[in-house]
Specification:
Layout: E1 2-4, E2 14-20, E3 46-51, H1 65-83, E4 90-97, E5 109-115, H2 120-136, H3 140-151, E6 155-159, E7 162-165, E8 176-180, H4 192-213, E9 218-223, E10 238-243, H5 250-255, H6 264-274
Antiparallel strand pairs: 1-2, 2-3, 3-5, 4-5, 4-9, 6-7, 7-8, 8-10, 9-10
The structure holds zinc ion (2 copies).
Protein backbone atom coordinates (compact mmCIF):
# COMPACT_ATOMS: atom_id res chain seq x y z
CA UNK A 1 0.00 0.00 0.00
CA UNK A 2 1.27 3.51 -0.75
CA UNK A 3 0.10 7.07 -0.37
CA UNK A 4 1.73 9.36 -2.90
CA UNK A 5 1.32 12.94 -4.14
CA UNK A 6 2.43 12.18 -7.68
CA UNK A 7 4.34 9.60 -9.65
CA UNK A 8 3.64 5.98 -10.42
CA UNK A 9 3.40 2.81 -8.37
CA UNK A 10 6.74 1.75 -6.88
CA UNK A 11 8.34 5.01 -8.06
CA UNK A 12 9.47 8.07 -6.10
CA UNK A 13 7.06 10.65 -4.64
CA UNK A 14 5.53 8.51 -1.90
CA UNK A 15 4.51 9.80 1.53
CA UNK A 16 3.82 6.52 3.24
CA UNK A 17 4.22 2.86 2.34
CA UNK A 18 3.18 -0.41 3.96
CA UNK A 19 5.32 -3.33 2.81
CA UNK A 20 5.95 -6.97 3.87
CA UNK A 21 8.66 -7.21 6.53
CA UNK A 22 11.95 -8.43 5.05
CA UNK A 23 12.52 -10.56 8.19
CA UNK A 24 8.95 -11.60 9.02
CA UNK A 25 7.98 -13.12 12.37
CA UNK A 26 5.03 -14.82 10.65
CA UNK A 27 4.54 -16.08 7.09
CA UNK A 28 1.41 -16.99 5.14
CA UNK A 29 2.80 -20.40 4.11
CA UNK A 30 4.17 -21.44 7.53
CA UNK A 31 3.96 -25.17 8.22
CA UNK A 32 3.62 -26.57 11.73
CA UNK A 33 7.06 -27.69 12.94
CA UNK A 34 5.62 -30.10 15.49
CA UNK A 35 2.18 -31.24 16.64
CA UNK A 36 0.22 -28.18 17.68
CA UNK A 37 -0.80 -27.59 21.23
CA UNK A 38 -1.73 -24.62 23.36
CA UNK A 39 1.81 -23.31 23.63
CA UNK A 40 3.22 -23.95 20.15
CA UNK A 41 1.74 -23.63 16.71
CA UNK A 42 2.67 -22.72 13.15
CA UNK A 43 3.70 -19.08 12.68
CA UNK A 44 1.03 -18.57 10.03
CA UNK A 45 0.02 -14.99 9.38
CA UNK A 46 1.53 -11.80 8.02
CA UNK A 47 4.08 -9.25 9.19
CA UNK A 48 4.14 -5.81 7.57
CA UNK A 49 6.11 -2.63 8.14
CA UNK A 50 4.50 0.80 8.00
CA UNK A 51 7.07 3.25 6.62
CA UNK A 52 5.38 6.31 8.03
CA UNK A 53 7.15 9.03 6.09
CA UNK A 54 9.85 9.41 3.45
CA UNK A 55 11.83 11.65 5.82
CA UNK A 56 14.45 9.70 7.70
CA UNK A 57 14.54 11.49 11.03
CA UNK A 58 11.06 12.74 11.90
CA UNK A 59 9.65 11.36 15.15
CA UNK A 60 5.92 11.14 15.93
CA UNK A 61 6.37 13.91 18.49
CA UNK A 62 7.39 16.22 15.62
CA UNK A 63 5.22 14.88 12.77
CA UNK A 64 2.44 17.36 11.85
CA UNK A 65 -0.94 16.16 13.17
CA UNK A 66 -2.57 15.78 9.70
CA UNK A 67 0.36 13.57 8.64
CA UNK A 68 -0.02 11.42 11.74
CA UNK A 69 -3.77 11.17 11.05
CA UNK A 70 -2.88 9.95 7.55
CA UNK A 71 -0.63 7.25 9.04
CA UNK A 72 -3.47 6.10 11.33
CA UNK A 73 -5.95 6.09 8.41
CA UNK A 74 -3.58 3.94 6.33
CA UNK A 75 -3.00 1.59 9.26
CA UNK A 76 -6.68 1.02 9.91
CA UNK A 77 -7.45 0.34 6.28
CA UNK A 78 -4.57 -2.15 6.07
CA UNK A 79 -5.74 -3.76 9.33
CA UNK A 80 -9.22 -4.27 7.84
CA UNK A 81 -7.71 -5.93 4.75
CA UNK A 82 -5.52 -8.27 6.86
CA UNK A 83 -8.48 -9.13 9.13
CA UNK A 84 -10.36 -10.45 6.10
CA UNK A 85 -7.64 -13.01 5.27
CA UNK A 86 -8.44 -16.64 6.12
CA UNK A 87 -7.00 -17.94 9.39
CA UNK A 88 -6.36 -14.49 10.86
CA UNK A 89 -7.81 -14.09 14.36
CA UNK A 90 -6.21 -10.82 15.38
CA UNK A 91 -4.33 -7.92 13.77
CA UNK A 92 -1.88 -6.27 16.14
CA UNK A 93 -0.57 -2.76 15.45
CA UNK A 94 2.41 -1.48 17.40
CA UNK A 95 5.27 0.97 17.31
CA UNK A 96 8.69 0.54 18.93
CA UNK A 97 10.53 3.84 19.15
CA UNK A 98 14.17 3.91 20.18
CA UNK A 99 16.70 1.19 20.87
CA UNK A 100 15.57 0.61 24.46
CA UNK A 101 12.10 -0.14 23.08
CA UNK A 102 13.42 -2.76 20.66
CA UNK A 103 13.51 -0.69 17.46
CA UNK A 104 16.14 -2.01 15.07
CA UNK A 105 15.63 0.59 12.31
CA UNK A 106 16.00 4.33 12.77
CA UNK A 107 13.64 5.36 9.93
CA UNK A 108 10.19 6.18 11.39
CA UNK A 109 8.14 3.00 11.19
CA UNK A 110 5.57 0.85 12.93
CA UNK A 111 4.41 -2.72 12.42
CA UNK A 112 1.38 -4.87 11.76
CA UNK A 113 1.24 -8.53 12.77
CA UNK A 114 -1.72 -10.56 11.51
CA UNK A 115 -1.93 -13.42 14.02
CA UNK A 116 -3.51 -16.88 13.92
CA UNK A 117 -4.64 -16.41 17.54
CA UNK A 118 -5.93 -13.76 19.94
CA UNK A 119 -3.01 -12.63 22.15
CA UNK A 120 -3.26 -13.71 25.80
CA UNK A 121 -3.27 -10.13 27.12
CA UNK A 122 -6.17 -9.15 24.84
CA UNK A 123 -8.00 -12.39 25.74
CA UNK A 124 -7.69 -11.59 29.44
CA UNK A 125 -8.91 -8.01 28.89
CA UNK A 126 -11.86 -9.39 26.92
CA UNK A 127 -12.76 -11.79 29.74
CA UNK A 128 -12.54 -9.10 32.38
CA UNK A 129 -14.56 -6.68 30.27
CA UNK A 130 -17.23 -9.31 29.68
CA UNK A 131 -17.52 -10.02 33.40
CA UNK A 132 -17.75 -6.31 34.12
CA UNK A 133 -20.48 -5.87 31.51
CA UNK A 134 -22.47 -8.77 32.98
CA UNK A 135 -22.28 -7.19 36.42
CA UNK A 136 -22.56 -3.47 35.69
CA UNK A 137 -24.45 -3.48 32.36
CA UNK A 138 -21.86 -1.08 30.91
CA UNK A 139 -18.67 -1.14 28.91
CA UNK A 140 -15.77 -0.92 31.37
CA UNK A 141 -13.76 1.32 29.03
CA UNK A 142 -16.62 3.80 28.52
CA UNK A 143 -16.88 4.03 32.29
CA UNK A 144 -13.12 4.29 32.70
CA UNK A 145 -12.88 7.25 30.29
CA UNK A 146 -15.72 9.02 32.10
CA UNK A 147 -14.34 8.29 35.56
CA UNK A 148 -10.78 9.39 34.85
CA UNK A 149 -11.95 12.69 33.34
CA UNK A 150 -14.30 13.29 36.31
CA UNK A 151 -11.67 12.45 38.97
CA UNK A 152 -8.96 14.36 37.16
CA UNK A 153 -5.97 13.24 39.25
CA UNK A 154 -4.76 10.74 36.64
CA UNK A 155 -6.01 12.54 33.56
CA UNK A 156 -3.42 14.09 31.26
CA UNK A 157 -5.38 15.75 28.47
CA UNK A 158 -8.43 15.62 26.22
CA UNK A 159 -8.49 16.27 22.48
CA UNK A 160 -12.01 16.27 21.02
CA UNK A 161 -13.49 12.91 21.99
CA UNK A 162 -10.12 11.35 22.96
CA UNK A 163 -9.01 11.11 26.56
CA UNK A 164 -5.46 10.49 27.75
CA UNK A 165 -4.80 9.33 31.31
CA UNK A 166 -2.36 7.33 33.41
CA UNK A 167 -4.01 3.95 34.17
CA UNK A 168 -4.61 3.28 37.88
CA UNK A 169 -2.35 0.17 37.80
CA UNK A 170 0.34 1.60 35.48
CA UNK A 171 3.04 -1.02 34.78
CA UNK A 172 5.75 1.54 34.07
CA UNK A 173 6.55 5.16 34.94
CA UNK A 174 4.53 7.51 32.72
CA UNK A 175 2.44 4.74 31.12
CA UNK A 176 -0.63 6.34 29.54
CA UNK A 177 -3.74 5.08 27.77
CA UNK A 178 -5.55 6.87 24.97
CA UNK A 179 -9.15 6.04 24.13
CA UNK A 180 -12.36 7.52 22.72
CA UNK A 181 -15.22 8.50 25.06
CA UNK A 182 -17.73 7.15 22.56
CA UNK A 183 -18.08 3.37 22.54
CA UNK A 184 -16.22 1.82 19.60
CA UNK A 185 -15.19 -1.82 19.32
CA UNK A 186 -12.49 -1.23 16.68
CA UNK A 187 -10.33 1.60 15.37
CA UNK A 188 -12.22 1.14 12.09
CA UNK A 189 -15.36 2.47 13.85
CA UNK A 190 -13.82 5.89 14.54
CA UNK A 191 -15.10 8.83 12.47
CA UNK A 192 -12.59 10.82 10.43
CA UNK A 193 -12.68 13.67 12.97
CA UNK A 194 -11.94 11.16 15.73
CA UNK A 195 -8.85 9.91 13.90
CA UNK A 196 -7.71 13.54 13.67
CA UNK A 197 -8.36 13.92 17.43
CA UNK A 198 -6.47 10.67 18.10
CA UNK A 199 -3.50 11.93 16.10
CA UNK A 200 -3.59 15.17 18.11
CA UNK A 201 -3.82 13.28 21.41
CA UNK A 202 -0.88 10.97 20.57
CA UNK A 203 1.22 13.83 19.19
CA UNK A 204 0.63 16.08 22.23
CA UNK A 205 1.24 13.24 24.68
CA UNK A 206 4.54 12.32 23.02
CA UNK A 207 5.57 15.99 22.98
CA UNK A 208 4.87 16.23 26.71
CA UNK A 209 6.79 13.02 27.41
CA UNK A 210 9.75 14.52 25.54
CA UNK A 211 9.45 17.63 27.70
CA UNK A 212 9.10 15.71 30.97
CA UNK A 213 11.73 13.01 30.34
CA UNK A 214 13.81 14.11 27.36
CA UNK A 215 13.42 12.10 24.17
CA UNK A 216 12.49 8.65 25.42
CA UNK A 217 12.15 5.21 23.88
CA UNK A 218 8.59 3.90 24.01
CA UNK A 219 6.26 1.13 22.93
CA UNK A 220 2.82 2.14 21.68
CA UNK A 221 0.20 -0.46 20.78
CA UNK A 222 -3.46 -0.84 19.95
CA UNK A 223 -5.91 -3.23 21.58
CA UNK A 224 -9.20 -3.76 19.79
CA UNK A 225 -11.95 -6.34 19.25
CA UNK A 226 -10.57 -9.51 17.57
CA UNK A 227 -10.98 -9.96 13.82
CA UNK A 228 -13.60 -12.73 14.01
CA UNK A 229 -15.85 -11.10 16.66
CA UNK A 230 -18.93 -9.05 15.88
CA UNK A 231 -19.13 -5.50 17.29
CA UNK A 232 -18.89 -6.16 21.03
CA UNK A 233 -20.79 -3.99 23.51
CA UNK A 234 -18.22 -4.73 26.23
CA UNK A 235 -14.85 -4.17 24.48
CA UNK A 236 -13.55 -0.82 23.33
CA UNK A 237 -10.37 0.02 21.41
CA UNK A 238 -7.56 1.81 23.18
CA UNK A 239 -3.91 2.64 22.74
CA UNK A 240 -1.44 1.87 25.52
CA UNK A 241 1.80 3.85 25.57
CA UNK A 242 4.73 2.62 27.67
CA UNK A 243 7.85 4.80 27.90
CA UNK A 244 10.87 2.54 28.40
CA UNK A 245 12.51 4.22 31.35
CA UNK A 246 12.82 1.08 33.49
CA UNK A 247 14.00 -2.39 32.46
CA UNK A 248 12.13 -5.65 32.84
CA UNK A 249 14.10 -8.06 35.02
CA UNK A 250 13.74 -11.27 37.00
CA UNK A 251 10.78 -10.16 39.05
CA UNK A 252 8.76 -9.04 36.01
CA UNK A 253 9.66 -12.13 33.91
CA UNK A 254 8.96 -14.47 36.77
CA UNK A 255 5.71 -13.02 38.05
CA UNK A 256 4.18 -10.89 35.30
CA UNK A 257 3.98 -8.23 37.98
CA UNK A 258 5.62 -4.85 37.57
CA UNK A 259 7.47 -2.56 39.94
CA UNK A 260 6.67 1.04 39.09
CA UNK A 261 8.55 3.65 41.15
CA UNK A 262 6.35 6.56 39.98
CA UNK A 263 2.68 6.62 40.97
CA UNK A 264 0.34 7.25 38.03
CA UNK A 265 -1.11 10.31 39.79
CA UNK A 266 2.40 11.83 39.96
CA UNK A 267 3.17 10.96 36.32
CA UNK A 268 -0.14 12.47 35.17
CA UNK A 269 0.51 15.65 37.15
CA UNK A 270 3.94 16.06 35.55
CA UNK A 271 2.52 15.45 32.07
CA UNK A 272 -0.25 18.00 32.69
CA UNK A 273 2.33 20.52 33.87
CA UNK A 274 4.61 19.95 30.86
CA UNK A 275 1.78 21.30 28.74
CA UNK A 276 1.42 24.46 30.78
CA UNK A 277 4.02 26.56 28.94
ZN1 LIG B 1 -17.03 1.34 25.54
ZN1 LIG C 1 -5.46 -3.11 26.64
Amino acid sequence: MAIRDAGQANGPGWRLRIVPNKFPALARNAQPASPENGARRAGAGAHEVVIETAEHDVTWSRLPIPRLAQVLEAVRSRMAALAREPGIEYVFFFKNHGEAAGATLSHPHSQLLALPMVPALVASELEGAERYYARAGRCYFCELAEREVARGERSVLEVGSMVVFAPHAARAPFEVWILPKRHQARLADAAEAEIEALAGAIRTTLGRLDQALGETAYNLFLHETPARSGPLAHYHWHFELIPRVTRLAGFEWGTRMFINPIAPEEAARRLRESGAD
